[in-house]
Write a structure and sequence with these properties.
With 291 residues, this protein is α/β, with parallel strands linked by helices.
């Protein structure tokens, strides 16, 4: 049985933005869409974002898995510059481009999540940087629930030689990346539209970074000792055993109530169009354009 700890007892309130009373009764949708392929996952993420109405929609938290394993490029990456495309083709490795920035991510045994909300669903004083930190706070709570020494990179003593940005996501280290024992776990990125915040990221169950880095054109040297996963940290639980503590951490850290939900008909129809017209096409995935 997984023990869920009281988040307020393990996260110092001075480290997180203040949560307003209005948030304490917020109801958010929780969508567990299971395992989808790369194009389906990114199409559904974007459909949920574009169908979201800031003044009337409930905020959304979605969790999902990737089947088969895949590479996702950051929005502004040049596929030919950062990937060994011949090797990708040789191994039939799916490549998809995210709508968020950042480096390339290899999606294997992991939970991915996406969060869609409006700024008014967060504290009024929350800046872009504070919002990123607040939305990542549930991950700190989730990892600490298992007794892991998780913290933001900004609060940790790290090797000054580690680059902030890297073409391979796990080799870089930014302010609000999450570290366990000084090693990076997962990655997160945010995109903002007018009055809408979109954030997504990964929770690695197993450490498959060495498998993923072989598809990079210039693999970063000696990065493997700087990354970790739940299994590396001694947490070996089936997927369904992780959903409950994940939901509890979200509700506690963000002071929200999650209700189980599915994508509605309009969201699914939009996702189908995006999948066929955008995320199944090399024009977008390799070149970053839809025309």
């Amino acid at each position: 049985m997984v023990a869920i700890l009281n988040v307020s007892g393990i996260i110092s309130p001075t480290r997180l933005p203040e949560v307003t009373p209005e948030m304490k009764h917020s109801i958010w949708r929780f969508i567990d869409s299971g395992s989808l392929n790369a194009a389906q996952n990114m199409a559904l993420d974007e459909a949920l974002l574009l169908q979201f109405q800031p003044e009337s929609s409930l905020p959304v938290v979605r969790i999902y898995r990737w089947e088969p394993h895949a590479l996702s490029l950051g929005r502004f990456q040049d596929a030919a510059e950062v990937l060994n495309l011949d090797r990708c083709r040789c191994f039939n490795m799916p490549i998809v481009r995210r709508i968020s920035g950042g480096g390339t991510v290899y999606h294997a045994e992991e939970f991915s999540y996406s969060i869609i909300c409006a700024p008014h669903h967060l504290p009024e004083s929350t800046s872009i940087k504070q919002a990123y930190r607040l939305l990542n706070s549930f991950l700190i709570a989730f990892y600490r629930n298992f007794g892991l020494d998780a913290d933001f990179s900004v609060n940790s003593v790290t090797d000054m030689n580690i680059p902030m940005h890297s073409p391979f996501c796990y080799a870089g280290r930014e302010t609000f990346d999450i570290l366990i024992g000084g090693r990076k776990i997962g990655g997160n990125a945010q995109r903002r539209l007018r009055n809408v915040i979109f954030q997504h990221g990964s929770i690695p169950l197993l450490n498959r970074s060495q498998e993923g880095v072989q598809f990079m054109k210039k693999p970063p040297p000696d990065f493997s000792r700087r990354v970790t996963s739940l299994a590396d940290e001694g947490v070996n639980l089936a997927d369904d055993m992780l959903v409950y503590p994940l939901k509890q951490s979200l509700q506690s850290a963000l002071c929200i109530e999650l209700i189980d939900s599915d994508p509605d008909e309009a969201e699914l129809e939009y996702a189908d169009r995006l999948e066929s017209d955008k995320y199944c096409r090399d024009m977008w995935n390799l070149h970053g354009t839809t025309s």
